[in-house]
Design goal:
This protein has about 575 residues and is α/β, with parallel strands linked by helices. Helix content is about 40%, strand content about 15%. The protein folds into 3 domains: about 80 residues; about 100 residues, no CATH class; about 280 residues, Rossmann fold, CATH 3.40.50. It contains 20 helices and 16 strands. The strands form 3 sheets. Strands 1, 2, 3, 4, 5, 6 and 7 form a 7-stranded antiparallel β-sheet that branches. A hairpin with a 5-residue loop joins strand 6 and strand 7. Helix 11 packs across helix 18. The longest helix has 28 residues.
Length: about 575
């Protein structure tokens, strides 16, 4: 009003007054005050934004950024497409709200355009979900086939308390009550007398509470949640694991109560927290060969199997050592007779070789022409073990179900290997044996390429480990060797028998073997496992980083064997660049 009057101060009949010719029901100044207040509120509503408006704008920005980043990635898989579709629907709803309730024409137009574009993007993402077989309930549709498809068996019930204890690693297992009590004994001399009611049987001394269990004293505290006293560790009185609950017997003496535990079990998928989900089925033991040490005599020869009694194996006249020498001589005689009449199997066609390191198509092609691959190594080189650790997944995809291993004895180590195949944990005796093998192979240097890593890589891919040596073939304790190739004869013959028994008993499957390179192919006239099994031999050798390696036809290699030059050659040769930062 003042603005109008200031501009029309000299008008005889100012046109800005009472332009609507509306009669007022109240005095003019009250009406002007109310009108000004309403205009201020309208201006504030137009110019100022509420927290709800700001949150909507912020979420629109978040969802637009999410769509720009993950929208193009939706083609990678249905989980990404599902997330992009959900975000697109939310953004579309917010854009529609802006198109309807925007403060200005520009905001409403912007919301209208954004809603259309976002809806189109969301439809594209939803089409990817349809292609992936996801229905409206978010469940994957099973493919329709003419024949009924066997569905996986439903997950069994919860893991029991006993299964939990079996799966928990030893370092995390509950302590034995006797050992824990011994660690918590207290030698303080008590002069007070026990209290009564709540403190019945409890002695208070220098602000601490003690109880007598038998003739021994323990520091205790009252645990309200358990409504009982419990023996505690004085150094860690509030520890949950280092406590032993107590109870009073009928004579008022303290006794150790059973420790509380979650006896209800737990969902089986939580067992994965210990690195395993399900124990694999236990396979029946293979039929023993006539060259293996019987179980009754195995204990007496355990140290000899670990390589600690070669002299005793050669000269000791006690029955266990005489038994070893008889088994050794029988195996040597049968092996020599076998090779006198041996006729090699037809050689498989070699796969098309890649330019560099083996790839997934190479393994598929290799196992298309052969059921097995024999990897030959020099035991002091790392390349073969690195090759197996790095490519165990590719071998598994090619259908490999078992790895045959030199150095492991069927009569001493296979039972422990079977337990490892089932649980993924190396028993202590086998773990120490593998550690000793790795130490000798690495010449006591620290290296990441070990036999232990090969075992764990195989288990992770579901590849079973099988020994192909025995005490008689592995421990070459001769007063005088019958020939320079007696080890190759005995081990190759025995491994051939074990592989045949294993494939017959546990079903035919593709396999890989890790052996010394003199066992892979023909060596000094003795057929290798590759010739005996109709498999392909691959000799692996280390080269320095920077040299050109790769895989190709093996040109052969000369080395020294028992002071004599020997020629070794396989079907293929793989040269592996080995970095030695540990040296």
């Amino acid at each position: 009003m003042l603005d109008v009057m200031r501009k029309q101060w000299d008008a005889i009949d100012p046109p800005g007054l009472n332009t609507l010719a509306t009669p007022l029901q109240q005095d003019a100044f009250t009406w002007l005050s109310d009108s000004a207040r309403q205009r201020m509120l309208a201006d504030a509503h137009f110019a100022l934004r509420s927290n709800a408006d700001l949150r909507k704008q912020r979420w629109i920005s978040y969802l637009q950024s999410f769509g720009r980043v993950f929208g193009p990635l939706a083609v990678l898989g249905w989980p990404v497409a599902l997330a992009a579709t959900g975000a697109g629907l939310a953004e579309t709803g917010l854009d529609i709200d802006q198109a309807i309730n925007g403060h200005t024409t520009a905001e409403r137009q912007s919301g209208f355009v954004a809603a259309i574009l976002c809806a189109i993007n969301t439809l594209f993402n939803a089409s990817l979900l349809r292609e992936a077989g996801l229905n409206v309930d978010g469940e994957m549709r099973l493919p329709e086939t003419d024949e009924a498809t066997a569905l996986p068996e439903p997950e069994p019930g919860n893991a029991t308390a006993g299964e939990l204890l079996a799966w928990v690693p030893e370092a995390y297992a509950p302590s034995e009550p006797g050992k824990l009590l011994e660690a918590l004994e207290n030698n303080d001399i008590l002069s007070s007398v026990p209290g009564d009611i709540r403190f019945q049987g409890v002695i208070m001394e220098r602000g601490k509470h003690y109880a007598m269990v038998g003739d021994l004293t323990y520091q205790v505290r009252f645990i309200g949640e358990l409504d009982t006293w419990a023996i505690i560790d004085p150094e860690n009185p509030f520890s949950f694991t280092q406590t032993m609950p107590l109870r009073l017997d009928a004579d008022g003496n303290w006794k150790i109560a059973e420790r509380l535990r979650l006896n209800g079990g737990t969902p089986r998928f939580l067992l994965k927290a210990w690195g395993r989900l399900h124990p694999r089925p236990k396979l029946p033991a293979l039929e023993p060969t006539p060259y293996e040490v019987p179980h009754a005599q195995a204990t007496a020869l355990r140290e000899a199997a670990n390589g600690d009694q070669d002299i005793a194996l050669t000269y000791n006249a006690e029955p266990p050592y005489r038994l070893y020498r008889k088994l050794r001589d029988d195996l040597a005689a049968d092996a020599r007779q076998f090779f006198l009449n041996f006729e090699p199997r037809p050689r498989p066609q070699l796969p098309e070789l890649p330019l560099a390191a083996p790839t997934s198509p190479f393994f598929r092609e290799l196992y298309r022409h052969s059921e097995g691959l024999v990897v030959g190594e020099s035991h002091v080189e790392r390349g073969a073990r690195q090759f197996l650790v790095s490519n165990m997944g590719q071998l598994h995809k090619a259908g490999v179900k078992v790895i045959y291993l030199e150095h492991f004895l069927t009569d001493f180590h296979q039972a422990e290997l079977d337990l490892f195949n089932q649980t993924g944990t190396l028993p202590e005796a086998l773990r120490q044996y593998v550690a000793d093998l790795d130490a000798l192979a690495s010449q006591f240097e620290v290296t990441p390429y070990t036999l232990k890593k090969v075992l764990y890589a195989a288990h992770a891919q579901g590849v079973r480990a099988q020994a192909i040596d025995c005490l008689a073939s592995y421990r070459q304790a001769w007063h005088e060797k019958p020939s320079s190739t007696i080890r190759q004869e005995m081990m190759n013959f025995f491994a051939h028998r074990v592989i045949a028994i294993d494939q017959a008993s546990r079903g035919p499957s593709k396999w890989v073997a890790l052996v010394g390179n003199s066992h892979a192919n023909n060596f000094m006239g003795i057929a290798g496992l590759a010739e005996m099994e109709g498999a392909i031999g691959l000799r692996v050798e280390d080269i320095e980083v920077g040299q050109s390696g790769g895989i190709g036809v093996d040109p052969g290699h000369t080395f020294e064997e028992d002071g004599m030059a020997a020629w070794i050659k396989s079907d293929l040769r793989l040269q592996v660049p080995i970095s030695r930062p540990w040296m």
